[in-house]
Design a protein that fits this description.
Helix content: 10-25%
Largest sheet: 7 strands, mixed
Order of helices and strands: HEEHEHEHEEHEEEEHEE
Strand content: 25-35%
Radius of gyration: 17 Å
Strand order of the largest sheet: 5-4-3-6-7-12-11
Shape: globular
Structural class: alpha/beta
Number of helices: 6
CATH superfamily: Vaccinia Virus protein VP39
Length: 233
């Protein structure tokens, strides 16, 4: 995939901000992802993110770190942070902003290290891609936890995005779970390949965790059907 996110982040960081990222899914029209939002300070973050950052402890893995806003806050709190992202440009920006240990790396390629906190924010379950992939990802995350470690991850229930019957049931695709979306992003005339992105409702996420002997607890709820979960072994 072209590093569209990385290009956009670097443009913004280097003073060439002229437009935002456009996102689109198979169930929604085009939407704007404002670049300044990806550089937000702690005070500008939603309450869900603030809660997650306040719960972090020990050695932290910030998976999908983007421009490094979460990592920078945690570093300033004195925590040891490893920030990873698939985007080369994102890591370049994170380093330029002062993230000490930022690496272009795939979460699934990490095997030896152990972490007290694994942080997955901005719909952290998106990284699972599909419902089918989720158990494998959960097992991998579990393997990276230090004793008494935790995974802090957010997601949303997308029922509100679907039409309803007169009885109140939602009309969803027959061939897939309604939280499995096909995503693409566009920036300055470039469009990404379509990629899968997963949103999990609480009950299903808890059920999947139970099957992997992972404790699931919702620790905060947002204003738009979103929630923050804490997973422990």
């Amino acid at each position: 995939m072209n590093d569209i996110l990385g290009k956009a982040l670097w443009d913004y960081y280097s003073g060439n901000y002229s437009e935002d990222i456009i996102t689109e899914t198979n169930i929604s029209e085009e939407d704007v992802l404002p670049l300044p939002y990806l550089f937000r300070s702690f005070t500008e973050m939603p309450s869900l993110e603030k809660k997650a950052l306040q719960l972090c402890n020990g050695k932290v893995l910030d998976a999908g770190c983007g421009a490094g806003s979460h990592s920078l806050y945690l570093q300033n709190q004195g925590l040891e942070v490893v920030a990873i992202d698939l985007s080369e440009g994102a890591i370049r920006v994170a380093k330029a902003r002062g993230v000490t240990n930022a690496q272009q790396r795939n979460l699934t390629d990490i095997s030896e290290e152990k972490y007290d906190t694994i942080l997955l924010l901005m719909n952290g379950t998106g990284i699972f891609g599909t419902l089918e992939n989720t158990p494998k990802f959960l097992r991998h995350l579990k393997s990276l936890l230090a004793p008494n470690g935790q995974i802090l991850i957010d997601s949303s229930d997308l029922q509100y995005m679907y039409d309803q019957t007169e009885e109140g049931a939602i009309i969803v695709p027959a061939h897939r779970y309604y939280g499995e979306l096909d995503f693409k992003v566009r920036y300055k005339g470039e469009t990404s390949d379509v990629f899968p992105w997963l949103y999990l409702h609480e009950a299903l996420f808890e059920e999947l965790c139970d099957k992997e002997a992972i404790k699931f607890k919702v620790v905060a709820r947002g204003e738009n059907f979103d929630y923050l979960a804490r997973l422990t072994v």
